[in-house]
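Possible regression after last week's pipeline update?

I re-ran a chain I had predicted before the update to compare outputs. Posting the input and the new output here so someone can diff against the archived version. Not blocking, just want to make sure nothing changed silently.
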Amino acid sequence: MIYILTSKNNAAIKKALGLKGKETWVEFLPVLKDPPANKFEATDMVYLDASAYFPAELKKAIALQKKGRNFWGIIDPKGSAEDPAAFFFDGAADYIGPGLYKKGMNKKRFDQAFSWVSSRGTGGDDSKSTDGAAAAEKKQGAKFPSAKFEGWRSIRPGTSGQFLFLYVALKGKTNIRAIVGEAAFVTVRNRLRDVLVRGFAEADGLLWMETEDSSLFLIPPKVDKGKLAVEASLKLILSGRLIGIEKLDVTTPVEFTMALHFGGTIFQAPGKTGAVISETVNYIFHLGGKKAESGRLTISGAVPDEVIPEGLKDFFSQAGVFEGIPIIQSKRFTHE
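New output (post-update):
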C-alpha cells in the first residue's frame, strides 16, 4: 500500500497519479493526524506531500519517519525544497519533484522505486538477508584509481570522481544545545568545525557538506591519505572528552561518531552541493546516521584494506552487513 500524507484538498495529487475512481493501492492521510504506530507495514510506502506542510511541520514529519523502518519519500509538486538531497541524507528512499509530478505518476513508477530500494536493503541492517558471496565480492573489488591526485582545485565542478567519504557527528548535540543555549551552540559548532578541519588537514580532507548534525569530508582516493584519515579519526575519538573541555569549552562529555566509505559522485565545490544526489553520498549518510556507533570508527567494505594502517588492523572487527556492504568497526576506547 502507498500512503500519501497530504491536505484535504488532494485533487491535484489524484490527478497527477491518474486516479479516476476508488483505487486500492493508494490511500490519503491527513498531515496533521498522527497515524497509529502499527499503521504501516514493511511493504508499505509512505510519501509526504511537501506542499501541504509548513517548513517546521515537514521537519517534524520527517523526524517521525526517521524513527520508523518503513520506506518513505517526498512528493514536491512545487519544487519548494532548496536542497532535495537533504531528504536522502535524512533517510528518504525517493523524491518526486515537479518535473515528474507534472508528467504524471503511476503505480509502476512506485513499484520500481520500492523494488530498487528493497534490493539494496535501504532502511537498516540487512545482514540477515544479504547474500554473503555477493558481499564478499564487493569487498574484494575495492581499489583506488591509479591517477595522481592533483588537489581539490584541479577538479572541475560537475565532473565525476571517486573519493573517500568521511562522516563525522558529535553525539550529545541536543544536550549541549540545552546546556549552553542556542546562541552559544552556534559558537560551539564553529569551534567544532575548526577542530575537524585541522584534524584532517594532513589527510587533505575537504569539508564538503554540513548538516545541523554532521559533517562530511572528502579524502583523496590515495592509500597514504586514507591511512592518515583513519589515524586522525581514531585520535579525535580518543581525545573527545578533552576536546570538549579545551576546544569547545563545554563541560558535558562529547563523543564522536565516524564512518568511512569509498565511491563515486559528481563533484561540486563546498557550499554548492545542494543539487548533488549520489548513491554513494546517500550511503555514507545512512551508514553514519543509522549504523555507526558513538566512540567508534565504522568502515564500509568498499574501502580498500590498505587504508587501515598495519598496526591498527587488529583494532577493527567485523560488524555484519549494512545495505548490502560488509562493514567493520573499531573497538571502543575506555576512559578509566
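Follow-up from reviewer: compared with the archived run. The two ends are 52 Å apart (CA to CA). Marking as no regression found.
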